[in-house]
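Checklist before submission:
- one chain only
- standard amino acids only
- sequence pasted in full

Submission:
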Amino acid sequence: MTDFEIRRATADDIPAIVVMLADDPLGARRESPDDPAPYRTAFERLDQDPNQHLVVAVRDGRTVGTLQLTVVPGLSRRGATRSIIEAVRIHADERGNGLGTELISWAVEESRRQGCALVQLTSDATRIDAHRFYERLGFEASHIGFKLPLD
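Returned file contents:
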């Protein structure tokens, strides 16, 4: 699959990204595609931070995939830098054709280029298909995650 490009997201991509974020049972409860203001504010913060890489996959001028890669310097593991992959989404009519694999491969290679020693991600416990996808790509379920909502 090479008939798409992966590029840094722009403000013009926000509506398409938000639609993809909202296009599943979990996202439908927590996203608000009809209210672009919080997404614009968040995008400005992401876009100004050199450790944040919000990218989109574009085919024929249409945004069909996205993910966010965050580079995190740290002291643990002898001062290793790690990356975190978040918000991986593929447009519903593009799923199953290898685009997700290509996006994750891009993120892993970009992590190497950034000098990361480790790539990590989390996936909601209910996303069983996503877990199989990540395991097929070589990721291991090695930790138990915890969250504390602050709102």
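Reviewer check: The first helix runs from residue 14 to 22.
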